[in-house]
Amino acid sequence: MNNIIVGFDFSTGSAKAVDLTIDIANRWQSDIRLVYVKQKDEDEAPIRAEIERRNEGVAHLLKNIKLEYVIREGKVSEQLAQQAIEDQALMIVVGTHGMSGFETNWIGKNTYRTITDSPVPVLSVREDFNFNKKLERIVVPLDSTNETRQKVPFAARMAKTFDAEIHLLGLYTSESRDIRTLVDGYVDQVENFLDKFGVRHTTKFVNAHKNLTVSTLEYANEINADLIVIMTEQEKALTSWLLGNYAQQMLHLSKRPILSLRPEQIGSQSR
Prior knowledge:
Blueprint: E1 4-7, H1 12-28, E2 32-38, H2 44-58, E3 67-73, H3 76-87, E4 91-96, H4 106-117, E5 122-126, E6 137-142, H5 152-162, E7 165-172, H6 177-197, E8 201-207, H7 212-223, E9 227-231, H8 246-253, E10 258-261
Parallel strand pairs: 1-2, 1-4, 2-3, 4-5, 6-7, 6-9, 7-8, 9-10
Antiparallel strand pairs: 5-10
């Protein structure tokens, strides 16, 4: 079916996620499946009534695509992942508050778990992000791990979709010549790929010895980025392991949308 899945819980963040998904789905000509995961004894009738009312309110924004919904029961991340499998989804979109107010809605609490359970890329968006701004600049950090390049095809698709520019960020996590040479080589390969794909791009290298997350976010802030594309498993600098893993840090600290892919998801973007 190649739908785009949206996790929904009536929060402002998830409502913003729906708006963004409509924009992407219109461009991809993909249908949208809104997923609400209810508690065991929660009454479905008022849920359905409110979802249908909200869907009618945005129906005029749909361009030859469908916006449907389903109510499931169970663990949020597992149910979103299962729906993505059933729909052969292209992507899951969820809204979150970020670090402040992180416990106030189930999507916010379950964003990281959704990413780790999902069979497809997950786009997480903060409710306080400026959605009126065009998607113009996409940050793609590249480190010395073999998997770091695997996010590039999906990032390139997003760039083509919005006529955006990709900003490659080469992350040097060590003074080791071998590590730096590896990063240089990966960046060069990605630049060649983007040239062939017809995507505008620019490149910057930074020393990220202390923390990959901080280096990535500082650069994203510097260029006023609209999206950051990451792998859930990034190279771990020795001085940053106590702060938690890269994807968790990015979700908690970034005010910008994060598109997260796991290595085992690669290939889904070609469907």
